C-alpha cells in the first residue's frame, strides 16, 4: 500500500470516529484532487491529508501551500456545483506523523484555510 492511501485510510478512520460521514474519496476534477470529502451536521468538509515521518522539514500542514489551497478550493467549488448541498463548506487538514510505519500522532486542523 502506498503512503498516500495509507494516510487517507488513517484519516478516514479518525474522522469517522469523530462522527463525520464519508461522502467521497479522491475526488478529481480538471482543477485538482481532494483527498476526502466528509460531512457532519453543519459542514461539508474538504480534507487534505498530509503524512510525514517527522517535522524535520516543517509540519505536514506547511506543505499545503497557498497554491495547493487554491487548487483545493477550486476543486471544491466544482464539487459543490455538481453536488448541491445546504451545508457550509469547510477546509480541514489532517497531519499524520508516522516515523516507523506506525501512526504516532494525528493532528486535525479544522478550518485550516478559507475560500
Automatic annotation (TrEMBL):
| GO MF term list | nucleic acid binding
Q: Which residues cross the membrane?
A: none
Signal peptide from the UniProt entry: none
UniProt family annotation: Belongs to the UPF0102 family.
The name of this protein is UPF0102 protein H9746_00800
Q: What species is given as this protein's source?
A: Candidatus Butyricicoccus avistercoris
Amino acid at each position: 500500500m502506498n503512503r498516500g492511501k495509507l494516510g487517507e485510510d488513517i484519516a478516514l478512520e479518525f474522522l469517522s470516529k469523530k462522527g463525520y460521514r464519508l461522502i467521497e474519496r479522491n475526488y478529481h476534477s480538471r482543477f485538482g484532487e481532494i483527498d476526502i470529502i466528509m460531512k457532519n451536521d453543519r459542514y461539508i468538509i474538504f480534507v487534505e491529508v498530509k503524512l510525514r515521518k517527522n517535522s524535520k522539514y516543517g509540519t505536514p500542514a506547511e506543505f499545503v501551500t497557498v497554491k495547493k489551497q487554491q487548487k483545493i478550493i477550486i476543486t471544491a467549488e466544482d464539487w459543490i456545483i455538481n453536488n448541491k448541498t445546504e451545508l457550509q463548506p469547510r477546509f480541514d487538514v489532517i497531519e499524520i506523523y508516522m516515523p516507523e510505519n506506525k501512526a504516532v500522532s494525528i493532528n486535525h486542523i479544522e478550518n485550516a484555510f478559507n475560500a
